[in-house]
């Protein structure tokens, strides 16, 4: 047999084997699926045993070890800047100097909502990171600060994050800043624990999916990420801000929402102290005022369910609630709402700091921490500080 004829016969034999091999593989796969399905009927089931499937506590966080890029400020579509956000292994936001150094003990952990996360600010400008760059320990060693901000979070959400992951890391100080998200949630629903269309402390799955279905869906997402994202957006419906107030009829569900904010802040403070962590409270900065004609016009063109004057009043009440807890619980208060008033253009909307605002906030926070805790922190000499 010539080499050429041998190759021809081998190719013919290979072709003849393809169909039976494919049938065998498909049969094995189908058989395994049927066996898995049948095995479910033989699993032991205790009568009356609770189910741990389909119901879980929502943890608002960025994915651990994430690397995100945001293209523009949501209220400034002409801005062509790109903003990077990176997280460490616990989902806390880090700065450029923290990459590869996330196993250090945490000196200061900032907890809050999107105003703390400061997504639309440069990595080295975000106040939670910058405070660590402005301070040094009393012995001259570096200060490590982490950013636990999460967009849309309330104090209850931050409480979950503290219990689920932060307390175990034993940060020396936790700086908590919340306000407007809590107040709007309480005005809408009257409770931290009641759904507000986009925010609920518990999520319940409609049904438990079979592992095989989950694997197929996850595989499809990996193969078609952009198509999957578009389908998810279509399923989610209108933008968050519109859905958030879809069922609000203009009448507050809770006449005095600050009462619950006080109780929640007090709960966080006492829990941190029980675990040997020093709490620090901050009022939430904003440029909300009745005479802010530019932002008022933008707000009212989009948001008709909660009036501008109501929003201004809620922000003021949230700051006062924070001051009340700080006074009654003898907690250090950093009154950013007061300190940043009149600082010019520090926000790109009414509540989120731009780069200049973040730098200004960091200076205030660092100075207050150094003054209040001189045995723990000192301000770095001017020559060793990051550039303004």
The separation of the N and C termini measures: 83 Å
**Largest beta sheet: strand ordering:** 7-5-8-10-11
Helix content: 40-55%
**What characteristic shape results from the CA principal axes?**
globular
Determine Rg (CA atoms, Å).
27 Å
For this structure, what is the CATH homologous superfamily?
SGNH hydrolase
- Count structural domains: 1
Classified by CATH, the class is Alpha Beta
How would a textbook summarize the main sheet?
Answer: 5 strands, parallel
Structural class: alpha/beta
Number of strands: 12
Give the rounded overall mean pLDDT: 81
Low-confidence stretches: 236-243
Number of helices: 13
How much beta, percentage-wise? 5-15%
Name given to the CATH architecture: 3-Layer(aba) Sandwich
Order of helices and strands: HEEEEEHHEEHEHEHHHHEHHEHHE
CATH topology annotation: Rossmann fold
Write structural notes for this entry:
By secondary structure, this protein is of the alpha/beta class. It has one domain: SGNH hydrolase (Rossmann fold). It is 44% helix and 12% strand. The chain has 13 helices and twelve strands. It has helices at 3-39, 114-117, 127-134, 155-166, 180-189, 211-223, 225-236, 240-244, 258-274, 293-302, 308-328, 336-339, 355-372; strands at 55-57, 67-70, 83-87, 93-94, 108-112, 135-137, 145-149, 173-177, 202-204, 278-282, 332-334, 377-379. A five-stranded parallel beta sheet has the order 7-5-8-10-11, with helices on both faces. A three-stranded antiparallel beta sheet has the order 2-3-4, with no helix packed on it. Strand 3 (83-87) and strand 4 (93-94) form a beta hairpin. Helix 3 (127-134) crosses helix 13 and helix 6 packs across helix 7 (225-236). The radius of gyration is 27 Å and the shape is globular. Mean pLDDT is 81; it is low at 236-243.
